[in-house]
Write a structure and sequence with these properties.
With about 325 residues, the protein is of the alpha+beta class. About 40% of the residues are buried. The protein folds into two domains: about 5-160, Butyryl-CoA Dehydrogenase, subunit A, domain 3 (Up-down Bundle); about 175-310, Roll (Nuclear Transport Factor 2, Chain: A). It contains 13 helices and seven strands. Strand 5 (about 270-280) and strand 6 form a beta hairpin.
Length: about 325
């Protein structure tokens, strides 16, 4: 069926919300945009005169497309080389969606997106729709073909799986810069003690190279082990320059609501280190180095001015 101007406008008004739902469900920007585009094609092909509530219809189609995608994505991740991390997004990216409440901000953090990997597809969908978008359980039940009671039970179960009991620190650009400056000062001091002081005792460091950039297959665990690893990462070495293709510039940023270090070489983001900051200290350092997961970040980074780098490494 051909689309009227009103039909197109109705979909475009929903696009940002659909993209934000899809990104939270899939943890990958490209897959989220593909799901939104497929939803548009189904909207185009549908008998729209029979659709009573277009927003609910679009959300149902989008969510079920994502659930199907999650099943195949998990199969692919079983053969993924090394640890898999969600694709990070810089502040202001429309796929991040609403950030008005604590729940909305946390639902899109790398920390929570990583924890959501523990959930079944249905648990993830219920959690995202309820926690991040405040859908009532009655509507969630209709979207997922559940009973309202089942939706409530699934939500409470999912929330328990995702909760880690930590109070995370909300950051703006200025706060992120201060945290990153302190972190870089400790990491480049040549000593482990300053880093240990910034980390929680059970801190971890994990990197996602996707088999395209060398990365340890298991996480570093414990403040001392993480501090030693980070000290080595920030130590000058010619082989590192060869590995990343040149002398990197390091900037502070906000990614998924968390402080981040952008590693830039000749206008290309070659790494994004996200710091998971809690009231007790930095609990995790997660680094995206797989080039496939840095394409969108690079494009967004290069579309704005950033001034001088905090550090010109090595």
């Amino acid at each position: 069926m051909s689309l009227s101007v009103g039909d197109v406008e109705l979909f475009e008004a929903a696009r940002a919300r659909l993209g934000a739902i899809a990104y939270r469900l899939l943890g990958a920007a490209g897959e989220a945009e593909d799901a939104v585009q497929e939803t548009f094609l189904r909207w185009q092909a549908a008998d729209r005169d029979r659709i009573e509530v277009p927003e609910a219809w679009l959300t149902k189609v989008l969510t079920n497309l994502c659930l199907n995608q999650l099943t195949s994505a998990r199969a692919r991740r079983e053969t993924y080389v090394g640890p898999w991390l969600p694709e990070p997004l810089l502040a202001g990216d429309p796929l991040l969606g609403p950030a008005d409440t604590v729940e909305q901000r946390e639902s899109v953090s790398i920390a929570v997106l990583t924890l959501m990997e523990r959930l079944t597809p249905n648990e993830r969908a219920v959690y995202v729709l309820r926690e991040a978008f405040d859908y009532p359980h009655r509507e969630i039940a209709e979207i997922l073909d559940l009973t309202e009671a089942s939706s409530q039970q699934i939500y409470h179960r999912a929330k328990k799986h995702v909760a880690d009991g930590r109070t995370r620190t909300a950051v703006d650009e200025a706060a992120a810069r201060r945290i990153v400056e302190e972190f870089l000062a400790a990491a480049t001091s040549g000593r482990t003690e300053p880093l240990v002081k910034l980390l929680t005792g059970d801190a971890i460091a994990i990197g996602d190279g996707g088999g395209k950039v060398p990365a340890r297959t298991t996480a570093y665990a414990g403040a001392l082990a993480v501090a030693k690893f980070l000290r080595g990462q920030f130590k000058p070495a010619e082989h590192k320059l060869a590995l990343i293709g040149g002398r990197p510039d390091l900037y502070a940023a906000v990614a998924n609501g968390e402080p981040a270090i952008v590693v830039l070489v000749d206008g290309q983001v070659v790494g994004l280190m996200v710091l998971d900051v809690t009231a007790d200290g930095i609990i995790a350092v997660r680094t995206a180095a797989n080039p496939d997961k840095l394409v969108r970040v690079t494009a967004r980074w290069n579309s704005t001015e950033h001034g001088e780098p905090l550090l010109r490494a090595w």
